[in-house]
Specification:
4 copies of one chain form a homotetramer.
Chain A: H1 28-46, H2 53-60, H3 64-70, H4 74-99, H5 104-116, H6 120-130, H7 139-161, H8 170-181, H9 187-190, H10 197-211
Helix pairs in contact in A: 1-2, 1-4, 1-6, 4-5, 4-6, 4-7, 5-10, 7-8
Chain D binds a DNA duplex (21 and 21 nucleotides) through helix 3.
Chain lengths: 218, 218, 218, 218
DNA sequence: TATGAATGAGTGTTCATTCAT
DNA sequence: AATGAATGAACACTCATTCAT
């Protein structure tokens, strides 16, 4: 920050840059996104509680006050980061299901894989965001996050309607099966012994398939 | 407050009380337990982050400094409360399984019921402890909490050995199925639409049974 | 907001409006007055300290930067508002005295009434301006405000010259009697027990009359 | 605070004081009073708004946190300082009246003198406290300050009862005459031309005496 | 003339932890 | 063992002011 430590002894008058000190103003969307990125990076690095507004602004290369031009409070950015993560994930899940074609077993498998096959960074972000030092959930967040379960519920509803799945209580089962994957990497439960991804995928696939009345099959 | 104004003028030698001035000192275990209780109550009421050492000592009726005679840091008590909760839960789970007798389906059901049928207060404590504003997990905590999954893993191992369950990867499945229940009440995912307990139990029972290759039926 | 997205592809040269794009610029006096009005309104509503430059510019419907085209600092507007209030009051006092005709007792009474019979809003503004959270007075302000006492001093001087009033030290008495009325509504001194106006007028009239050697009588 | 600038070059290990670093704990009353003194001094020097909690604690030679052991907020100390000032003043006024004996004219004069004859510092404190940047009055403050007018009202009531004073509306007159003195030194009204004390006393005495129907005379 | 994004110093308040008694 | 006064680093948020456009 104060690393511009001008090497003493150099005789100078006036400003040191010959290039202008950077464009002062940016499209609002871009600025907001940069702040969001910085917040996400900091949360990933230190967790929500340990992240300070200063970390965010420094990371985004803006002054402190700028933060409050785009977010009302610290809790506000955190919620925005969560929402953004969630939206990305929902999209990913939707795409995975669509890519699986018409095979109902394959669609189910796709959910499992999409749920477990996160990049390392994504997964750590997920944990930081939803497992560690999480702020009280607000109504705003609730709606956004419900989508996630909703995607899975929709799949079950369609599968049942198509006669492919055998599920009595779709709503509740969706919640439970979603839960099976969510937080599975949470270090608090697994310590150092996190099962590796292939095993997790295999075991989860079995649970999912059997739970909707499909055979384990290939 | 500082009214120790001893009535002046009265001539006296030696202490004035014939009964000891109250047992200022208590068995260490008792004190520790009281602090733990106070911490638990406060966490239940306001969550981990919002709980201060002051809340704990006030709740336990001791001076602030006393806290540090029994715990090294705030994080230390929190971990202790978590451990205590976990131990209670493990015990409860073990008892439920034992009470189910030799019926492997009943044993599985017992796990589901024990996992979901918490008292309201217990459940809120669970959420406060493990879902909201949770501190970074330490190695110490890991071991303790692993027990919980361990109980379930043991059941699967035995069931498989007895030829009653059909599970390929016991370790991983234990983690996943445990996960299915844990956090299912988490308001962040469900908002106001938490399914009621009977439906949860029914749906979870189906998932559990099917996942180990048992039929739904009672 | 940043939707100035000019429809691309349309080929055009030169400006598109034939009517000027709204009078962006106003007579300086008008703008200044609008800012002053906005400042006054905000001060009336929240007091000086709580009033921000943002409140003023928003109230005046201009951008923040515009403020600094008309005033050097926040303290500057506040002083201007004070000066404006003062000028209005001086004028009012002068008119009241003039309207009282040649009767020296009536003239004195007129001062009392003018001093106490403010509209509710005016009085609240007065208090906000001169009683609550007032900034340090500057030399600039002093001169302007001195007028107010000056009006009253002039009356005394003339009254004494005419042999109607009996006052030894006119200058000092003017300050004191002015003071008698000023701030009399100040809630800090009166709490909820502010005397009602008729009683205040009656009592103040008596003080004023007796102080210059006139009888109470009408 | 960081004035322990150890003269560099002196070779030393360990602490620098041979006398213990000052008693860490003090009687609560004393500490509170010291904080109050520091707050008063800072208010006197810079005014209420410009006074920071840091100024207060530095002035009292304690850490920032200590402040909040004795006062709930900054507004709280300010109110306490005001109350303390007020109490001192009320006491002073009471004593002055009592010292005047049975002479009703002398008692009135005593009020005038007590009201005007402040030490320079006291007067500046009064202004800082009650004239500049004053916080919103609370019910707590109201009561305390009402005492001041109350003292004067009591005098009028007794004087009227004794047949010495001729005042129709005692309550209102008390407020007005109190007001005549309060704030008379306010620089906002007088600029550099503050009348000197002897003249103020003389003129005010005349106003007071005449207002209660007494002759000017010695 | 007018704009409004950007700045960054400033401040009240909290709270885990220490330590002299 | 027990106390509780004292500490001080940390942090979210505000707002007057600037300046490139």
């Amino acid at each position: 920050m104060t690393d511009q430590s001008v090497s003493q002894g150099e005789h100078r008058i006036g400003p040191i840059w010959h290039t202008p000190p950077v464009a002062r103003t940016k499209p609002a969307d871009e600025r907001r996104e940069e702040l969001l990125d910085a917040a996400e990076a900091s949360i990933l690095e230190r967790g929500i509680t340990a992240t300070t507004v200063d970390h965010v602004t420094t990371g985004a290369g803006v002054a402190k006050g700028t933060f409050y031009l785009y977010f009302k409070t610290k809790a506000d950015v955190v919620a925005a980061v969560q929402r953004r993560y969630n939206d990305r994930f929902v999209e990913q899940l939707r795409r995975a299901i669509a890519a699986a074609g018409d095979d109902w077993a394959a669609r189910l498998d796709a959910c499992v894989e999409a749920g477990l096959h996160d990049h390392q960074a994504e997964r750590r972000l997920h944990d930081a965001l939803f497992l560690h030092t999480r702020p009280e959930p607000g109504p705003d967040l609730d709606d956004a996050l419900d989508d996630l379960v909703g995607v899975f519920r929709d799949l079950l509803v369609e599968g049942v309607a198509a006669g492919a799945y055998d599920v009595a209580d779709v709503d509740t089962t969706a919640v439970l099966l979603f839960n099976t994957l969510h937080g599975v990497y949470d270090p608090i439960w697994l310590g150092a012994r996190t099962p590796d991804e292939p095993r997790l995928v295999a075991a989860a696939r079995t649970i999912y398939r059997r739970s909707v009345g499909l055979p384990d099959g290939p």
